[in-house]
Design brief:
Layout lengths: L1 H23 L2 E9 L10 E4 L2 E6 L5 E7 L4 E6 L3 E6 L8 E2 L18 E3 L4 E3 L7 E5 L13 H8 L3 E4 L2 E4 L3 E2 L2 E2 L3 E4 L2 E3 L10 E7 L15 E6 L5
Parallel strand pairs: 1-7, 15-18
Antiparallel strand pairs: 1-4, 2-3, 2-5, 5-6, 8-9, 10-17, 11-12, 13-14, 15-16, 17-18
Amino acid sequence: MKVKALFLILFCVLTIGTITAQKKNPKIIITGTVTDDSQRPVINAIVMIDGQNTSSMTDANGNYKIKVKQTTKTIGVVSFANGIKEEAVDGRTVIDFSYATSTNQQSDQTIPPGETGVNTGYDVQKRNDATGPVKTIDGTDKGKRYATYSSVYEMITREVGGVRVNGTQVIIQGAKDFFGDVAALLIVDGVPVSDFTGISPATVESISVLKGSSAAIYGTRGYGGAVVVTTKKQNQ
């Protein structure tokens, strides 16, 4: 009898603790609609929270619904055909996005002297205009002996923190889904490739490692981020 009573007391304590913890970290539900420049619904746009892609997408009517922490600062959507839109949450629970009033990051092909450009695979942006974490390796930097590396993979892992190689795949820290790690999209001179095998570090002009919303221009293919390699022969 005493054992049952003790078990009941422990159960009550654990239940109360769980409820208290849930009250301390409540979540809110944000809903909205995404439309293009013609006010038509945007289907399968990926919802981003604080610059990170989620598994939530807009439905056939362009509607989305997602549960987020109250500490969430920004919510955004990315559509391969329309680009990226992002808004501050500011306590709102209904946030609509319209590409008709676009605030997308537009490419600036003229990079001022002394300012680093970020190659996204589609264009070159100012580093400050990139919408998510980016790490760039300048293969033309004579102060770095990149040509001594055995492969592009070694070049990436030794120069970029939070990145590891699994066979021919590049895994960017934090790129996960329900099934585990998600490999980054690999791109060479604007073309998606299966691996970087055969590319000599000596021929590399630059490498851009795009994470989160920086890789969102690739749609679902960029869910795990993207590694964009530009070779010197492309610019010769």
